[in-house]
Amino acid sequence: MKRIAFIFARGGSKGLPGKNLKPLMGKPLIEYAVECALKSDFIHEVYVSTEDDDIRRIALKLGVKVIDRPMYLASDTSAEWLSWQHAIKWVFNLGNKFDEFVSLPVTSPLRSVEDVNDAIKMRETSNADICIAITPASRSPYFNMVKKIEGNYVELVNPPRSDVHRRQDAPCIYDITTSVYVSTPNYILNSMGLFDGKVASIEVPKERAIDIDDIYDFMLAQYILEESYAKK
Fold first, then answer.
1. Cβ 214 vs Cβ 15: under 8 Å
2. Which residues contact 108 (CB under 8 A, 6 or more apart)?
3. In this predicted structure, what is the pLDDT of residue 232?
4. Residue 216 three-state SS
C-alpha cells in the first residue's frame, strides 16, 4: 500500500500572521510537520501544498515535493476539504497513484510519529473511511457550555439531563485535534466532508494536541517544547 503525506501551508493567517514560517525553538513551524512525515516508516512520499513562495523554498530545501495551490484555495474562507481534493488530483495528474492519504497540519508541531502511525493502523484495522485524532475536552455541552438566546439570556447547548449534576456525571466529550487525518483518495474525492462516512479515531494527550491558531497557542507550544528539552 502506497501512502502519501500532505502538508497544507498557506502564506496568510489572520490569527497569527505568517505562522507557518514562524520560528519555534529555532525552526520554522512547517519543518516540524515535514520532519514528522519523513520519520514515519508508513509514509512513502511527502508533498507540501502552498501558494506562498517562501514556504515553497523551505519545502524544497527540506527535500519534499511541492503542489502549487491556487489562490482561491488559499484564503481564510477556503474549505480545507477542497484543498485536499485539489492535491489528490494534482498528484494523480502526475501519473502518481497512491492508496492512502495522510494530512499533517502545520499547526500541530507537538504530534509524535507514533500518533501518525497509530492513526494509519487504526483506519485500516477498523475499516473506516477516515481516521481523526481526538483529545479529552475541557468543557462539556452537557454541563458547562452555553449559547446566547434572546433577551441576553443563555441556555445549555444541549438540553439538560436529569442525571448530570456535576462535570464528572456528563458523558465523555472529546475535541477534534489537527494532529493527523488519514483517509483514502477515493473517499475524499467522492465525499463532502469528514463525517460523510465511517470515522475512526485515535486519542492523543493534551500536550500533543495543541493547535496553533494565535500567539497564545504558540507560546504554550514553545513552553511545552522548552520543558521537554530541559528534561532530556
1. yes
2. 33, 177, 178, 179, 180, 208, 209, 210, 211, 212
3. 64
4. helix
Same domain for 144 and 118:
no
Cell of 20: 507557518
What contacts 72, CB < 8 A, 6 or more positions away? Answer: 78
Q: Give phi and psi for 4, each to the nearest 5.
A: -125, 135
pLDDT in tens, 13-56: 766 878 899 999 999 999 999 999 999 999 999 999 999 999 99
All cell numbers assigned to 175: 475535541
The range of the structural domain enclosing residue 150 comes to 138-172
Q: Based on the fold, state whether residues 36 and 142 are members of the same structural domain.
A: no
Strands 154-156 and 130-136 turn out to be unpaired
**Amino acid letter for position 22:** K
pLDDT of residue 165: 67
Given a cut of 70, the residues of the chain with pLDDT beneath it are: 14-15, 160, 162, 164-165, 167, 232
Do 168 and 97 reside in the same domain of the chain?
no
What is the spatial distance between Cα 161 and Cα 175, in angstroms, rounded to a whole number?
Answer: 21
Are 100 and 129 in contact by the 8 Å Cβ rule? The answer is no
